[in-house]
Amino acid sequence: MASATQTPSSSPPRRSWAGLSTVRSRVIAAVIGLTALALTIAGLTAYSLERALAEHRVQGYLDRSVEEFRVLAQQGLDSTGRPFSESSVDELLRTAMQRHVLAANESHLGIRGGTLAWTAAEGVPLRPEQDAEFLAAVLPLSTLDHTTRSRLSTSRHDYFFAVIPVHFPSENGALVHVFDMRAEDRSLQGTYGTYALVALGSLVVVGVLIWLLVGRLLRPIRLLRTTAEDITEHDLSRRIPVHGNDDLSALTGTVNAMLDRLQGVLDSQRQLLDDVGHELRTPVTIVRGHLELMRTDDPADVQGTRTLALDELDRMARLVDDLLTLAKSESADFVQPCATDIGRLTDETLEKARALAPRRWQLDAMADVEAVLDPQRITQAWLQLASNAVKYSPADSPIAMGSALRDGRLQLWVRDRGIGIAPAERERVLQRFVRGEAAPLRADGTGLGLAIVDRIVRAHGGTVQIDSSAAEGSTITLVLPQRAITPSQPPMEAT
């Protein structure tokens, strides 16, 4: 196998199958192991049952043989038509052995007077008469008064036999019916040897199918891993294709959603850094330029430069505060909702707004309801709208505030007679550092006010609506969702 020198890299090396094949192999090993265990238990159980059934079957054959021989001895007739009791033991044994058709692992013997007299035909495979150990154990049993059923293992065979004695006045004898249980076991073992081969083949087939199936099931995980390896801090654009409707597909969708959130956070951070760098560079440049050109021997110039520097520093402080507010808006605890009296909140916010600037402040409506919201954040957003209305409206113009429950939604608004917002700019002004075209001519600002308002409202699950025209001014409304509202009384109209 060829080898190559690996160049050091900041990204981790790709291991296309190393980790996954381990999981795949473990799953396959577990399935094959359990299948093999099940097949083994089933085979051993079936073998034990079949062996017990074979012994029971042989026992039944011996019982029938005993009964048939007794009936033949008591009621049968020989070839001359005389009862066997008036004939001879030889005739009885010969007749009984001729009538019985032997199986492959079966044989019989005829004993007369304690000695072997008759054997099975030459074509019968089982020859117990050639086993001295068997004859030595069986011959004494032929003289007893009762039938003997027993098992005997010798060096040649494992016998299951019955010795059926018969006593005539002239002589005694016995019929020995023999089964070779070792041969029965070999036949049974051959059958289950075939079962073992079939089971082994089944395990191979199961292993191949499980390999393919597990590979298909783990494909989303493999894609997830390779996608995660390709993702860097500079590129979060890759996504994992979602196929099917199972747990792995749900996991893939969850990972994609997580990547979307991470990309959104990363983009937001990049935009924030760009915006901060851009917005702070201007006041720093202004302060640096005036400091470099300041005449230290001119008190008036020093005082003017000082005033300008302090003004720019204040603007930077406001900018930093606004940026911190926007950064906090991404956290889960940005808002802390609680049950709030909207009527009281409306009245208190209007009183705070009156201190912003001398305007003709008015109350349009007051909703006498309770809502679950963060009163501090909503007050901050509401006052920001009031501050914008002050900036972009004439000194003697009216500014109205109000709250109402409409169509199941809580609405909080500020209405002014200012310069208005162009239709093309109504979506853009909610973004960071975006101001209307006429704004720089009328007032100072950071361009973050409405962005903060939008973040606060979105954190409550609501939206910001802007209705504006150059002739009539603007009405900006905070619309909060229905789920957060518990009405108590109809809204109270006021002027």
- Report strand order across the widest sheet: 2-1-5-4-3
**Domains (count):** 3
Q: How much helical structure, as a percent, in the residues?
A: 40-55%
In terms of DSSP E residues, the strand content is 15-25%
Average predicted confidence as pLDDT: 80
Structural class: alpha+beta
Top-tier CATH class of the largest domain: Alpha Beta
The CATH homologous superfamily of the largest domain is called Histidine kinase-like ATPase, C-terminal domain
Distance between the termini: 89 Å
Q: Which stretches are poorly predicted, pLDDT < 50 over at least 5 residues? A: 1-20, 488-495
Q: How would you sum up the major sheet?
A: 5 strands, antiparallel
Topology record:
Elements: H1 18-75, H2 89-99, E1 106-112, E2 115-119, H3 132-138, E3 148-153, E4 158-167, E5 172-180, H4 181-217, H5 219-230, H6 247-293, H7 299-328, E6 338-341, H8 342-354, E7 360-363, E8 365-366, E9 369-373, H9 375-391, E10 398-406, E11 409-416, H10 439-442, H11 449-459, E12 463-469, E13 473-480, E14 485-487, E15 492-493
